[in-house]
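can u do me a favor
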């Protein structure tokens, strides 16, 4: 794959997060399954598509990776807390602000997340929804990527299911970055890789849900996914649901994101994770230009994708030298 195509995929993944989030946000919590929704037109004013916490936290991950040229837990936690304090109205889940409060009381970044939900940590989808920049920066090295994905997740989502949701989403993004879109991804093969990962991690609920995704994919209509997989705020529902939406329409960014929104439930987050997968596979060039034009922070997000691309290339050169 040439450099230009790979950079297009990096941009597509990060812009995909923000576009899916912004388009899905007005429908968060809707029952879904209704008649096809007419999505807001975004071709009027730049900035009309406003993103939520999903993108806000993703940009925090990206900023921290770029500043530190890799994962630094204390720095990333501080970045999250500061961003939240500046823009607390982005629609955050209940857990992360509690973690930020604990951090401000001096609790270390790698302990605060574990103190939530009676000491079990959160299994919300908030770590998976923001993991894309980790997948980008470490896209060539699965072991390093998984370590960074898991540690970054644990800052706010220390429950094993919160962490493994982030790991699964990150693996899917890296595999799709490496895949040239002309080659038509095999949904069944990609889902199998994720099932193996979930199995190895001992996360059986993901194994079950991913098996359902695989079974449901060839069938029509797609909405059985809501009853079998779910569309909720839990990572073990939202991550497999996003994979389903992407695979169901793997050659069309807009169809995949529209399906995620039509499923209802946690629409901004599922559409955002669907957008990350589709963008990583098809590239920025596959995202409708009116959506990109309307996106809040478009230039900044694209610039961060380019900075992550440079980090990834730097890591690749370093690995080459050490071989
Ligand atoms: O995961 P999180 O950051 O929320 C992300 C969601 C996305 O939809 C965003 O768009 C935004 O709207 O919020 O926030 P958390 O509070 O960590 O997790 C989300 C919810 O999952 C919690 O508020 C709980 O309702 C539930 N939850 C749990 N419930 C019981 N026991 C998460 N972990 C637990 C648990 O261990
Ligand atoms: Mg949100
Ligand atoms: Mg959401």
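np, heres the sequence
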């Amino acid at each position: 794959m040439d450099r230009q195509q790979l950079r297009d995929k990096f941009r597509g993944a990060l812009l995909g997060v923000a576009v899916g989030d912004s388009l899905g946000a007005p429908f968060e919590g809707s029952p879904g399954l209704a008649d096809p929704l007419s999505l807001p037109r975004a071709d009027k004013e730049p900035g009309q598509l406003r993103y939520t916490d999903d993108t806000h936290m993703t940009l925090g991950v990206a900023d921290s990776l770029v500043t530190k040229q890799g994962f630094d837990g204390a720095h990333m936690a501080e970045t999250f807390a500061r961003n939240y304090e500046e823009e607390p109205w982005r629609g955050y889940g209940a857990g992360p602000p509690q973690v930020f409060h604990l951090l401000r009381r001096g609790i270390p970044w790698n302990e605060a997340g574990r103190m939530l939900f009676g000491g079990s940590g959160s299994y919300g989808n908030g770590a998976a929804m923001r993991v894309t920049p980790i997948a980008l920066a470490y896209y060539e090295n699965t072991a390093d990527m998984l370590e960074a994905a898991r540690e970054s997740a644990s800052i706010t989502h220390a429950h094993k299911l919160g962490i493994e949701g982030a790991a699964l989403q990150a693996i899917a993004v890296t595999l799709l970055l490496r895949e040239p879109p002309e080659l038509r991804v095999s949904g069944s093969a990609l889902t199998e890789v994720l099932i193996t990962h979930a199995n190895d991690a001992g996360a059986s609920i993901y194994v079950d849900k991913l098996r359902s995704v695989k079974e449901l994919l060839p069938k029509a209509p797609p909405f059985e996914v809501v009853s079998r997989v779910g569309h909720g705020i839990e990572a073990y529902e939202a991550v497999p649901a996003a994979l389903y939406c992407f695979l169901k329409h793997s050659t069309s960014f807009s169809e995949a994101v529209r399906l995620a929104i039509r499923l209802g439930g946690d629409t901004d987050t599922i559409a955002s994770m669907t957008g990350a997968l589709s963008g990583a596979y098809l590239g920025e060039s596959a995202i409708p230009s009116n959506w990109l034009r309307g996106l809040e922070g478009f230039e900044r997000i694209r610039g961060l994708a380019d900075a992550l691309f440079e980090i990834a290339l730097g890591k690749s050169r370093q690995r080459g030298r050490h071989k």
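The CA atoms of residues 205 and 236 lie 7 Å apart. hope that helps!!
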